[in-house]
Amino acid sequence: MDPRTPCLVGAAQLTVREQPGPEPLDLWEAVARAAADDARLPPGRLGSIQVVHTDSWQYDDPPGRLAERLGATPGHRAYSKVSGTAPQLLIGEAAARIAAGGLDCALVVGAEALATRRAYRKAGERVPWSHPAVPKPPYGWERPPHPAELAHELFLPVHTYPIMETARRAALGWTVEEEMADRGRMMAPMTEVAAANPYAWRRTPRTPAELAGGRFVGWPYTRDTVAVLEVDQAAAVVLVSAELADRLGVPEERRIHLRGWAYAEDTWEVAARPALGSSQAIARAAEAAFARAGLGLGDMRALDVYSCFAVALRQACDAIGLDPSDPRGLTVTGGLPYAGGPASDYVLHSTAAMAGLLRARGGHGLVTSVGMHLTKHAYAIWSTEPGGALGDGRPVFTADPVKIVDVYDGPAVVAGYTVAHGRDGAAERGILVVDLPGGGRAHALVHDPGLIAEAEARELVGETVRLASDGRMNTATW
User: Fold this and answer.
1) How many Å from the N-terminal Cα to the C-terminal Cα in the chain?
2) Do residues 262 and 390 touch, judged by C-beta distance below 8 A?
3) What average pLDDT values come out for the chain (478 residues) when binned by 10 residues?
4) CA 62 to chain centre
5) Which helix (H) or strand (E) element contains residue 120?
6) What span, in angstroms and rounded, lies between the C-alpha atoms of 354 and 361?
7) What is the DSSP string of 220-236?
8) Which stretches of 31-190 are assigned E, i.e. beta strand?
9) For residue 111, which of 45, 430, 434, 436 sits 20 to 30 Å off, Cα-Cα?
C-alpha cells in the first residue's frame, strides 16, 4: 500500500441534552479531542483543521479559535459554506491532500447549538458566546436565492422540497393520501434506528400511522417527517496517511478507507429543474462513485441516504435503483428527522456512524449527502478494504436549467406546489411552480383561503390556473 493512502482512523459524536448547553466552540473542541483520541493522535499534531459552517453563531475565525483550543498550528485551515454536502467535500479535500503528500493528518469537525440558542431566546436572554465576528459576515450561501424566489417567499427548504414532492406524487399517479401513507411506511423504520442510537436527538419509535398524521409545516409534510434543526450536536473525523497510521499503531481493522466519491449538481433553482420530481444528478454522482470504488450498490453492507425530507430519500432511491424497504435499511443513524439534522453537519454524523459499523462488521458502506434545495449531491463509498480511486469535488454532471420568468400574466399549468403553514399549524399561503405556454416556468402565490383549502384536498399538479402580476409577484387563481 502507498504510504500516503488516506484512511479514517478517528471518529466521534456528541449530543448535549441539558439546556442551555455549551456554545459551538466548546462542542468543536470536545468532539475534536474525542476523535483525535480515537485516532491515537495528539490534537496538537493536526496538520489540517477544517470546520463545517455553523448556523448557531458567527465566529471571527472558527478554525483559528479551535486550533488555539487544541494547541495546534495546522498549515491548512478551512471553513465551509452552508451546505449538507460540505462535510463530504471537506473530507474529500483532506483525503486528496494526504494522498498528494501535502499533509499526513487532518480533522474535519462540525457542531450546532441551535437548541441552546432557542433556550436563551425563550428565556429572553442574549446568547453569551465568545469571539463574535465583527462586523457580522453575510450568511454563508454559496449562491443567494433567485430574485423571483425571494419575491414569492420561496427560499426555505420546508417549502421547496414539498413542491418537488407533489410533482413526484403526481407523476406516479398517487393520491394525496397514498403519498402520506407511503411516507409513514418509509420513515417509521428510521425511528427504530434512531431509538437504538445513543447520539440521536429523538429516540422514540413511531408507527407508520403516527408519521402519516401530525401538524403540517410545508404541506404535505408534517413536523415529524422533516429534519429537526434545533439540536445541540457535534461530530468529527480524523484522517491520516497509512504511514502515520502505522506509526500511531492503529490496527488495520480500525482503518476505514474512502474507496471513491463523486459530486454532481442539479439546478440551483427548483423551478429551473427539467423535471421537478426527479434528479438527473443523483444517478451520475452515484455511478461515478461506484465506478471509482470498483463496487456496486449490491456490495454495500450498510447505507445512509440523506433524509432531510422524504423526497430526498425517494429521488435517491429512484435514481440508484434502491428499494425503500431494502432490508439493509436507509440509515445507520436514524436520519435527519430523528437522529438530528444539525444544519450543514449531518454527514459528519452519518460518516462517523458508518465508520463504527464497518469497524465492527467489515465490508463497504454508502454515505450520501444533499445540499441546498436538492441541488448538490455527494456519494461516498467507505470500506475496510483499501482500493479504488478517490475522486474529487469537481462536478461529474451539472444539469441545464429551464428558463425562469419573473412575472407573468395569463394561463399556466401547475408543475408542483405546497401550502406554507405557520407555527400554529394554520395554512398561510399557497406557493406554486407553473409551466408557461411559451416555455419556461414561473412562481405564483395563492392567497384565497378557499383555494388554499382546495389545494390541500385534491391534486393540483396538472391543473390550469391564471396568473396575474403586480410587476414583482404573481398571484394565482382558478
Assistant:
1) 66
2) no
3) 94 97 98 98 98 98 98 98 97 98 97 98 96 92 90 95 98 96 97 98 96 91 96 98 98 97 97 96 98 98 98 98 98 98 98 98 98 97 97 96 97 98 94 97 98 96 98 97
4) 21
5) helix 114-122
6) 10
7) TEEGGGS-----EEEEE
8) 48-51, 76-79, 105-113
9) 45
- What is the per-residue pLDDT for 140? 83
Nearest to 305 by CA among 379, 388, 397: 379
Neighbour tally for 238: CB within 10 Å: 28
Round to whole Å and give the CA distance between 231 and 264: 29
- Which residues fall within 8 angstroms of residue 45, CB to CB, at 6 or more apart? 72, 105
pTM for the model stands at 0.97
Cβ–Cβ contacts within 10 Å for residue 296, how many? 13
Amino acid identity at 29: E
**CA–CA distances in Å: residue 358 to residues 9, 32, 265, 303:** 12, 21, 29, 11
Give the position of cell 458508518: 354
Identity of residue 392: D
Residue 433: strand pairing partners: 416, 443
